[in-house]
Amino acid sequence: MTTYDERASLTDLTATVERVRSSVEQVIEGKPEVVRLSLTVLLAEGHLLIEDVPGVGKTMLAKALARSIDCSVRRIQFTPDLLPSDITGVSIWDQQRRDFEFKPGAIFAQIVIGDEINRASPKTQSALLESLEERQVTIDGETYELPSPFMVVATQNPVEMEGTYPLPEAQRDRFMARVSIGYPSAEAELQMLDVHGGISPLDDLQPVAHAHEIQKLIDAVRGVHVADAVRRYAVDLVAATRTHPDLRLGASPRATLHLLRAAKASAALTGRDYALPDDLQALAVPVLAHRLLPTAQAQLNRRTAEQVVHEILQQTPVPAAPQQQGYGGLGTGAQAYGRPPRRL
Predict the structure, then answer these.
(1) Which domains does the chain have, with CATH numbers?
(2) Counting Cβ atoms within 10 Å, is residue 109 exposed (0-12), middle (13-18) or buried (19+)?
(3) What is the pLDDT of residue 230?
(4) Phi and psi angles of residue 123, each rounded to the nearest 5 degrees, phi first
(5) What is 178-236 written as a DSSP string?
(6) What is the spatial distance between Cα 73 and Cα 76, in angstroms, rounded to a whole number?
(7) How many other C-beta atoms lie within 10 A of the C-beta of residue 209?
(8) Which pTM was predicted?
(9) What is the pLDDT of residue 330?
């Protein structure tokens, strides 16, 4: 049974998220599913990778999300000459104090926009590994905690484009989800000409939520219930990628954790305090596909990682709704995945 405090948290969550969503959609028009996924990753304490061709609004989406929340924001323009210390920071000798003083890099913000992340060298890209996973930076043996909430929204162009470096597998695995914006519809593009033709809508965008509100929402998402059957289903989906004949690299245990966290955030966005197998299915492609490496034969057959994930979803049995015996009868439908009623 959901307590009053939990009901209030979910109500606050949906109201706050609706304000942020409406704010972002003033800039990104005709892409509600992309905006929803961005908010899902934010509340799941993950990082988002936006991959698409130039000019479709990748950086605009990242900026709109950042400006809609009243928190510290830093932007990093990734270029071939960018140094790791530009991201993490550097210790500088202070003549007056006769000691080293740490100068924080651009990663020390609550929302970090990494623009065209795959245009930097692999050495510079690796500077993000500790920050993405452990939310801290270690310089000269000293560890510095990053602010909370913390989210990296990175954009990248397809690897086929000139001047790009492929992201290392370890770095791709640290991004919770990857999304492609795609070209807008004709109607959305016409509306964009009207809205963006004279002035950038980012100029009028004002924060509609505070950082401490987002942190409270993140705490509420952590409390979303996940039944054992749903947990097993997440494990089965990820395990299937490790044995699929078209993949030479499957998803990691970190991917299972990211899939579960994203499913909890998606359930909370819908107003539920429990996750369903439907949440896992809806998020499987954006959460898993960018971590997978097809075999050479699969690439020759033009098989993509997204197609493999769809195939796995079709082949993996969906768990039956659990029976809540001993708690006043059997669970029925979606409610059976919720919290078991308390004994009187």
Answers:
(1) 1-223 (3.40.50.300), 225-320 (1.10.8.80)
(2) buried
(3) 94
(4) -60, -45
(5) EE---PPPHHHHHHHHHHHTTS-GGGG----EEHHHHHHHHHHHHT-B--HHHHHHHHH
(6) 10
(7) 18
(8) 0.87
(9) 40
